[in-house]
User: Fold this.
Amino acid sequence: MLVLRLRPRAQEVDGAGGDGGRDLLEYTESGELINYEAKSFTGRMTSGRRQQVIRSLISTAQHQPDHWDLLVPISPNPGELAWFDSLREEFPFVRDWRGLNWLNQKFAAHQDLIRYALQESGDYILDRIAEARAERDTLLRGIPDLAERYRALQLRAQEISPDYAIRTVLGPDGETAIHLLPKVNVQGGRPIRFTGRVSFRHNEPQDEHRRQQFEDAMRFGGEVELAAANIEELAVDAPSELGISGTFPIESLKIAAHREALDPTMRGQLTIRTSAGIPSASLPVEFTQRTTGFDGGSLYGQDITGFIQIRMRYDRRRGAWSQTLSFAPPEVALPQEMVPVLRFISRALPGQSMELTVHGPTVTQLTAPINHAAVPHSWDSDEAETWADAFDHLATLQRMTGQFFPTPPGYNLKDARDAQTAISLLRGERVAMPNTVVSLGVDRREALDQVSGGRLAFAAKYQAMVVTFGQHQIDLGPGIELMTIDKVLNMREARRALESDGHATVRLRIDRTQPAQRYLGTDLPDPDTRT
Assistant:
């Protein structure tokens, strides 16, 4: 729970059948894989416990992590720290020992996790009774008492005014915010009027921007938040029962136009055209809301997937229009839904034009040049197209296997390469493997002698080759891996382990001139025809 709190991109690993040397995993924004192994050891890191850590490292190595962290409530002594540092010689991805001092420091900043863990502890509850005396005395039944009291106050609040319903919420800083909402089916209700003077400083960029927002809100129906320096004392004229009439200073004022729902909605098509007028991408769109102002208004909608939000502003006085697109993908979506949107924004470049065709009793077409690229500012120029290819690979794999699931959290370009590799395998192709070192388990001296006999070529048969995306696994079927070995990296250690334990793990280096290959099927190749 602490790691999930500190690392929002981390996720738990289901340990059923073994956790693969990791209790949690994380794909960073840059695509790096970090594995976390948590051990509940206390006291000292004995030889048996060290062997458990090494076995975890051997298991986690098959996932090819970029980093691996050990979380254990032990502060290492110099000997234990030297042993841990030596692990990097064989497992270069080993990164940090997160010990007792680190854990205590982090838990001190997250007391709610301690309360959660100790919530059944009678001693903990008794220690807190003095601090919660008032709450204990007035809310004897806990949450049911709180709900009953809150409901009674809310019912009483609705009786204050015949024109306005009252809703209370807690703000981000714990302050109480009161929302006044016109009551339904109340005709001719008394309005709340605000009177004040608005001013903006010249040659001050922030104020100039705020002035433009204010003018746009008044002219086209929008939103603006004014600072105290922009407003002189504000006078409020409201029904007396609300108790808010009068003149008073304010810290800020937010003005937002009412958004009216369109019924029926307006449907159309967005098309990107090249400088030669050739369509390069398009998406169906739908406008569902609008605001109005003194000179025109704004239409609000989205594309058919809901990933792209659209605001179109029209100026009746000038007979002009403009639109703004924002890209906001949802947390859960199928990969095939992402592809057309990413293709669209990757091609919405300055120098192209955007065409909006609105369908209705008559067809209306509006065209305007694209002034700004649609990709987020933090992206490279070709990043949207790269990600479109990445989602396309996963969508293609899902179509080929008939297994459909949302894009997993943390999906990255390495996952996309795995999907592309799986597609090649399903198409009957042989795929080169990136491995440079492999590990074999040996239980007999004869097998160890055979491995040590110089160059060795062998084939490994698998009952199932599985590719994993987040919590989802796709079984590609049986497969074979072909490898040519040119050197044993740990023969001396392996012989000692075989003598003492009856089992050894041999690390073998793959011949660089003959990269390892993988393909699907059960037929082994003719040794004389391998290339």
About this structure: The mean pLDDT is 85. The two ends are 50 Å apart (CA to CA). Residues 383-401 form the longest helix (19 residues). The chain is about 30% helix and 30% strand.
